[in-house]
Amino acid sequence: MWWLVAAAAVAVVAPCHGEVFTAMTDMSRLLATEGEMIRAIENFIVAQEEKLEKLKRDLFEMERIHDLAAHSPDDFLANPINAYLLVKRLTVDWADLQDVMTDNSMGKAMLNNLTSMADFLRWPDEEDLNGAATALMRLQDTYNLDTSQLARGQILGKKQAYRELTAADCFELGRQSYNSGDHYHTTLWMTEALSRQEAENNKTVEHADILEYLAFSTYMQGNIRQALKLTDELLLERPNHQRAQGNKVYYEEALSTQEAARRGEDRDSLGEEAVEKGYTVTENTLVNDAYHRERRSYERLCRGEGGLPPKVSSKLHCFYQNGPSDYLKIGPVKTELAHINPTIYIYHDVLNDDEIAVIKELATPMFKRATVQNYKTGELETASYRISKSSWLKSGDSEVVYRVNERIGAITGLNMDTAEELQVANYGLGGHYEPHFDYARAHTKLADLGPDGNRMSTFLFYMSDVEAGGATVFPQINLALWPKKGAAAFWHNLYPNGEGDELTRHAACPVLVGTKWVSNKWIHERGQEFRRPCGLDIKDL
């Protein structure tokens, strides 16, 4: 359409060497020129109207969802699909809209106005988009979520997303997985994108673009025959696609080699087994048994499966704790014995709503992405296996913080003078912390503990209920603790002799639906010599 407009413009403004005004026969030809110009302008108007109609449709959908979200932002963002789509709208979709708006000066002026408000607005970037997509994959794996159900906005019968995913939404999830080298999830989401694209009346993504990613990731998953089939489909739509042409030759050669090898080898193919399980051949061969055993236990507990055997659970009970502090004789604490060896307690109603609100208000302005210490270098760094933001509060920051610290000392009977500050954390989209120890182990750089010694004990407050997911799990002992607002968990990380108790290795499961707030106090060894003395047995509790 643009070339027609250009052609018409040339016809009008280019000089006529024949001096058309001097003969009526030449003048009559100008009518034909004008006719072509009119048709070009009409086509241009149609194209602009189509753009505007698409803009109107996009705007209507954004306004609809935004209005629904405004009624209850927390409920809206509690659904991870809504959260992912919000990030996508402000990155990929916004970039497409900017391309349309920059076609004219008025659109450019509006964009410049938005740019001038950068100090007041928060824009996500490509890292945020990748993080949101990765979070959805994490939830999908941990909770065994079906791809098609997720695309329909359904999460284990919990909150329904405000809309289903389009083919373009699924494509973007697949593209992000592809960019991360995750061909397993690329295949899942590109397959879903393909199915949805074929059912869409207004196509949101090109069929051939999906095929390109899907074909290569299918090959990387070990299914060469299917990759070749998908590449042939791609070449039917785009015969001159150079990468597809090269891949077709490569796949044909690989298929011939594979079939020749199978004729001389056992048909029990490791590659087929790898595709079945969702790992590449290399990953399947190098599986670390201990890691995957723990991983399976961790994910099973996160889903609420398994649990303590009857011979253990039958010994658990609840009681009112009225010591060791005299304060507890006046106001005993509702205590639940959650596990024996290691001993893990849950204290109920030890933090009230007003205290929680104050702690959140104090902590939020200081939030930074949570870090871990590199076990080789001892340096603090961010990590994909810990997704949350946190900050630290001193007793002097507020009367509430001081009172909470005193309460921990009263309940545990331990000295708070050498304990760390109160750490407050909020878990984001799919926020989690994979299995870890709270204490520093002897063979790591963290073993240089300083004068206060190791992290002897952990006191963990739950400052919110979580609608689904978000449990604290102990894979070695098949224990899951589910967040309950105002409750707290407590355990000793070390035996009385200072050795680490490996059974306390624990994890924070990904938040599936809702939001999770916690605060914790790590209590160190120094000052506890007479409060938790060594027993006669090396592993006395």
Strand content: 5-15%
The biggest beta sheet reads:
9 strands, antiparallel
Numbering strands along the chain, what is their spatial order in the largest sheet? 1-2-3-14-10-17-8-7-4
Task: Look at the structure and give the mean pLDDT.
Answer: 88
Helix content: 40-55%
Indicate the radius of gyration in whole angstroms: 31 Å
User: What's the number of helices?
Assistant: 19
End-to-end separation in angstroms reads 81 Å
Could you say which structural class the secondary elements and strand pairing correspond to? Answer: alpha+beta
Question: Uncertain segments of ≥5 residues (pLDDT<50)?
Answer: 1-13, 266-287
Q: What's the overall geometry?
A: elongated
Number of strands: 17
Descriptive overview:
48% of the residues lie in helices and 13% in strands. The protein is built from 19 helices and 17 strands. The chain has a nine-stranded antiparallel β-sheet, with helices on one face. Strands 9-15-12-13 form a four-stranded antiparallel β-sheet, covered by helices on one side. Helix 4 packs antiparallel against helix 6, helix 6 (126-142) crosses helix 8 and helix 8 runs antiparallel to helix 9. The longest helix is centred in the N-terminal third of the chain and has 48 residues, at 24-71.
